[in-house]
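Postdoc handover notes: sequence design on the structure in folder B. Input tokens:
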């Protein structure tokens, strides 16, 4: 007779939605667990935390976490998250997404949310491919990598997501792999607590849509690769035109800076034009947001 044991994080999971859809060896589960452990460590009031996602394998996280969650349309997670944050600035709003959802279909939303310094945390699982829809080439597919839509190898320059986020105005930017779990959890804690737009890229294997087609072995081999081919360089953005199929992976906390958030800028500007009693109310709101 088999016995089903409870998982310590069951209280943060919608276990009635399981089994999950992810393939064996996929790293998205590790990334999701890292986020849940970060939230547990931070001891935030969970009724004040919302997770928003778009479409794709990574986006399924919004269906599995026992938090206020929104599984939205493809590429539109950031606009939904923006609406949440504008309506209730005290919410902790986290966007959990994949590279195709974020940087292709949602690319414009990504750069403008960073430019505005909206107080959002964006976690992007980068597996270099559109995994759910058949392994098509995406905006982070490395040069020469094969996909279902680039059978002879990709010849388009990929995005370097940390550089894109930083250049657009993000105040916190980090990159880790699913092998570096402890560092990833720390980065997620820092990103969630950072006022303004924070971005964490999580490099993950896609055994079905990417590793097999590019003869990179199985997920275990890729985890070994993450261990042996990663270099940690804090404080400096990786100077690469996207990641290589078999190249070195630069990891670390690249950006941690201060900029007034969207709400702070908006309220300061409005306060300059408002008259009593509204100006006092605006100043009170600024104080509440700035803590």
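Designed sequence:
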């Amino acid at each position: 007779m088999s016995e089903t044991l409870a998982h310590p994080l069951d209280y943060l999971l919608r276990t009635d939605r399981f089994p999950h859809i992810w393939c064996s060896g996929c790293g998205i589960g590790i990334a999701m667990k890292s986020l849940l452990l970060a939230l547990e460590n931070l001891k935030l009031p969970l009724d004040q935390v919302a997770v928003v996602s778009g479409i794709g394998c990574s986006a399924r996280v919004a269906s599995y976490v026992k938090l206020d969650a929104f599984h939205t349309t493809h590429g539109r997670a950031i606009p939904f998250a923006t609406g949440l944050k504008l309506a209730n600035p005290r919410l902790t709003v986290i966007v959990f997404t994949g590279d195709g959802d974020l940087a292709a279909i949602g690319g414009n939303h990504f750069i403008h949310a960073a430019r505005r310094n909206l107080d959002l945390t964006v976690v992007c699982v980068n597996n270099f491919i559109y995994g759910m829809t058949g392994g098509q080439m995406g905006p982070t597919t490395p040069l020469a990598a094969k996909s279902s839509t680039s059978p002879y190898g990709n010849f388009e320059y990929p995005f370097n997501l940390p550089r894109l986020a930083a250049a657009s105005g993000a105040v916190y930017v980090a990159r880790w792999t699913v092998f570096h779990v402890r560092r990833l959890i720390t980065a997620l804690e820092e990103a969630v607590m950072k006022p303004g737009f924070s971005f964490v890229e999580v490099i993950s294997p896609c055994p079905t849509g990417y590793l097999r087609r590019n003869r990179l072995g199985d997920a275990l081999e890729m985890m070994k690769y993450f261990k042996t081919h990663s270099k940690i360089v804090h404080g400096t953005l990786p100077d690469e035109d996207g990641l290589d199929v078999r190249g070195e992976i630069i990891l670390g906390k690249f950006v941690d800076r201060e900029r007034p958030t969207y709400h702070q800028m908006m309220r300061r500007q409005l306060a300059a034009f408002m008259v009593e009693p509204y100006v006092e109310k605006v100043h009170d709101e600024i104080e509440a947001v700035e803590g």
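Context for whoever picks this up: The longest helix spans residues 28-42. Don't rerun without checking with the PI first.
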